[in-house]
Amino acid sequence: MQTYIGRSNPQEHIDMYYGNMLISGVNDAVICNAFFATLAVLQKHSNNKKYHPIGGTIFHHVINFHRLHHYITDLARKYKTYRLITPFRSEVYTVDPINVEYILKTNFENYGKGEYNNSILKDLLGDGIFTVDGEKWREQRKVSSHEFSTRILRDYSSVVFRKSAATLARVLSEAANKEESVDMQDFFTRTTLDAVFKVAFAVDLDTVHGSSEEGVKFTNAFVVASEMTLRRYVDISWKIKKALNIGSEAKLKKSVKVIDDFVLKLIHTKIEQMHKFQDDSTLGWKKNDILSRFLLLTETNPRYLRDVTLNFMVAGKDTTAISLSWFIYMLCKHPSIQEKVAREIKEVTKVDKITDIEEFAVNMPEEALEKMQYLHAALTETLRLCPVLPVDAKICFSDDTWPDGFNVKKGDMVCYLPYAMGRMKFLWGDDAEEFKPERWLDEKGCFRQENPFKFTAFQAGPRICLGKDFAYRQMKIFSAVLLQCFIFKLKDDKKAAHYKTMINLLIDGGLHVCVSHRSDL
Predict the structure, then answer these.
(1) Which of 118, 128, 220, 358 would be 307's cystine partner, CB 3.0–4.6 Å?
(2) Burial (CB count <10 Å: 0-12, 13-18, 19+), residue 116
(3) How distant, in Å, are the alpha carbons of 67, 127, 130, 233 from that of 133?
(4) Quick check: helix, strand or coil at residue 271?
(5) What angle do CA 485, 489, 494 make, to 5 degrees?
(6) Exposed, middle or buried, 505 (CB in 10 Å: 0-12/13-18/19+)?
(7) In-domain check, residue 19
(8) What are the C-alpha distances in Å from 331 to residues 186, 293, 435, 447, 489?
């Protein structure tokens, strides 16, 4: 796609643009539809302002949906910042840290979720912290920030994570004894769901053993709901499908009902317990879990609590499960790095042979986790190349000029691209696409932070992820326990993992590995 900056005649834009489309073999229906979209937008933009180059149309996203993040990355290599034309607005995509910092921090108030993103995400995530702006966002941010900073939550969650890691290790030990392959992504998804539900609701689901049919249904429903929600960004007919309850929207509605029934049931149970304990002062009510603490601090509207806790669970479950899945995949593809991580864990914990998995997990000191610098670097390198949220979208609330000198208009959707940014040579050097944990370590082997507007896996600025330390602690606990116990190899080492195009960077088809003991247990 050529750059058309400086051409004031919309027809000249269109002639050159569609000439390129014809040469590339795009079919007539796509050209026809894209023609009207481009004509409307280019006429609107035919003034003296300077706009970013056109990278394509929404129809290119539809055509490349199965490899969407690769397609976006290819465009980002050509243009650090570019526009995508849709029938209703321009979408501006950037991998330039100066633009990212401007969106997320410098002019933070001008960029938010907006009605467009809220309308797409609301059915699944409601009015949770990931979908709202303004006072609703500030209220939830304030309460959540306080809770994440409390030692009570830190200590309680650490105990839960250690027990969950030990439970998973015992299951993997059985698979190793039987020489059976396992789907680690499925196990991580179920285990982290168990852990996060315990932290959120003080409820034991035990989906890792498959004994909770409701928990398994919830997990499957969320995967479907996530995928169908993402499709709304490229399916301009989704509102019609929703009104008719057909296709992807029918699947989304059905999945959201499963999610709602499950979560609201838990909330009503917790509210009843709270009232029961308030009425009888002789009973002690543990207030360690997230829901209990929110019940003490805020209103008890079940729908509000559903949105708050579901957003928390989505962040806690998916960040860890998806990141750990890609982490194990990377270690399988780089066995020397897997051994280096395992050696560090052994040296730091000073445990040569594990005789009791749960005892090892429960008694592993917090200080030991802090000393695992290479493990921290390897996890961060995984997040650089495989961020859980590959694209993050905001809405521009008023006309603006970015630091690169180009203009954006009110109503434009602006996106920064964590997945693509991790592959930019101008940011990370010629080895940008290599898995290299050492890039995060200084000459003394200590972890070195990067500019958060360059490494955007946890966002940055006022919306920076509150659970960042929470997520690292959970990932390090799981990694330390599993890598001290097992060696992981891909079931098919010739098969490369590919993502499934949805809101999060899930591995398509799962992660099938063979597990063997590092030592006798």
Answers:
(1) 128
(2) middle
(3) 31, 9, 9, 19
(4) helix
(5) 170
(6) buried
(7) no
(8) 18, 38, 9, 19, 8
Question: Structural domain tally of the chain?
Answer: 1
Say how many CA atoms lie within 13 Å of 184 toward its Cβ: 32
Long-range Cβ pairs for the range 462-467 (8 Å, 24+): 462/104, 462/105, 462/108, 462/141, 463/104, 463/108, 465/315, 466/141, 466/144, 466/145, 466/148, 467/148, 467/312, 467/315, 467/316, 467/319
Residue 511 lies in a domain: yes
Residue 431 maps to a domain: yes
User: Residue 144 contacts by C-beta under 8 Å, 6 or more apart in sequence?
Assistant: 129, 308, 312, 466
Q: How far apart are CA 302 and CA 73, in angstroms?
A: 41
Residue listed under structure tokens 């039987």 = 178
Which 3 state secondary structure label does DSSP give 181?
strand
Q: Own/partner pairs for 433-436, CB < 8 Å, 24+ apart?
A: 433/385, 435/330, 435/333, 435/334, 435/337, 435/381, 435/382, 435/385, 436/381
Q: Residue 365's domain is classified under what CATH number? A: 1.10.630.10
Domain enclosing residue 488, as ranges: 134-517
Residue owning tokens 């979720």: 113
User: In terms of DSSP bridges, do strands 413-416 and 90-94 run parallel, antiparallel, or are they unpaired?
Assistant: parallel
For residue 1, what pLDDT is reported?
36
The CA distances from residue 363 to 162, 349, 357, 359, 476, in Å, are 9, 10, 10, 6, 14
Q: Which amino acid is at 490?
A: L
Q: Consecutive sets of 10 residues in the chain, 521 residues long: mean pLDDT of each? A: 36 37 43 48 61 89 91 95 87 96 96 90 89 85 75 84 93 94 93 84 74 76 85 88 96 95 85 69 58 70 84 79 97 97 94 85 91 98 96 94 95 95 97 97 94 94 87 94 96 92 90 87 42
C-beta separation of 116 from 413 below 8 A = yes
d(CA 394, CA 131): 10
Taking the C-alpha atoms of residue 126 and residue 508, their distance in angstroms, rounded to an integer, is 26
Is residue 442 assigned to a domain?
yes
DSSP 441: B
Q: Nearest CA to 259 among 219, 292, 205? A: 219
Q: Tokens in use for 321?
A: 């499960």
